[in-house]
From TrEMBL:
Parts of the chain that traverse the membrane: none
Family membership noted in the UniProt record: Belongs to the LOB domain-containing protein family.
Name this polypeptide is given: LOB domain-containing protein
PROSITE patterns: LOB
Domain annotation LOB: ranges: 4-105
Organismal lineage: Eukaryota, Viridiplantae, Streptophyta, Embryophyta, Tracheophyta
A Pfam family the protein falls into: LOB
Length: 143
C-alpha cells in the first residue's frame, strides 16, 4: 500500500517518493505542524538544518521546531520567549520556596538537637523563626 504524500511535498505540490527526505519527520497527518514550521523557518532552512544533524538528533530537532513554530502561531509577538520567561519565573519561585523549606527544616533540626528548656525559648520567639527563613548561604544553596 502506498503511503500518502508527506506534509512537505503536499505543501510544495510535488511528488513524494519513497526516499523523500522530509517524509519521516512530517508525515501527511502533520500538515498543520509543517505549515507552522514552514512559515517560521522556510523549507530550505528546515532541510538544511536536518541534513546537518546526525540522524538520531533529527526527530528532536523537528519536535523543537514544531514547538517553537506553534508557540509563534499562538503568540506572534513573543512566541517561545514568553513561555520561557514564565517557566523561568516559576522555577525561581520554586527555588525560593525550596530554600525556605530547607531553612525551616534546618531550623527545626537545630531545635530538635537543643535541650527541652531551650526549645521553648526559641518557640516563644517568632522573630528567630522569621530570620531563619532567609537564604542559608551554604555551598549547596541554589541562590
Ligand atoms: Zn515528501
Amino acid at each position: 500500500m502506498k503511503r500518502p504524500a508527506c506534509a512537505a511535498c503536499k505543501n510544495q505540490r510535488r511528488k513524494c517518493d519513497e526516499d523523500c527526505f522530509v517524509a519521516p519527520y512530517f508525515p501527511a497527518e502533520k500538515t498543520r505542524d509543517f505549515e507552522a514550521v514552514h512559515k517560521l523557518f522556510g523549507l530550505h532552512n528546515i532541510v538544511n538544518l536536518l541534513q546537518n544533524l546526525p540522524l538520531e538528533k533529527r526527530s528532536d530537532a523537528v519536535i523543537s521546531m514544531v514547538y517553537e513554530a506553534n508557540a509563534r502561531v499562538r503568540d506572534p509577538v513573543t512566541g517561545c520567549t514568553r513561555i520561557l520567561s514564565e517557566l523561568t519565573q516559576r522555577l525561581n519561585a520554586l527555588k525560593a520556596e525550596l530554600n525556605l523549606v530547607q531553612n525551616k527544616n534546618a531550623f527545626y533540626r537545630t531545635l530538635k538537637q537543643q535541650q527541652p528548656g531551650q526549645q521553648n525559648m526559641v518557640h516563644n520567639n517568632p522573630q528567630q523563626l522569621q530570620e531563619s527563613s532567609f537564604c542559608c548561604k551554604k555551598t549547596d544553596c541554589w541562590n
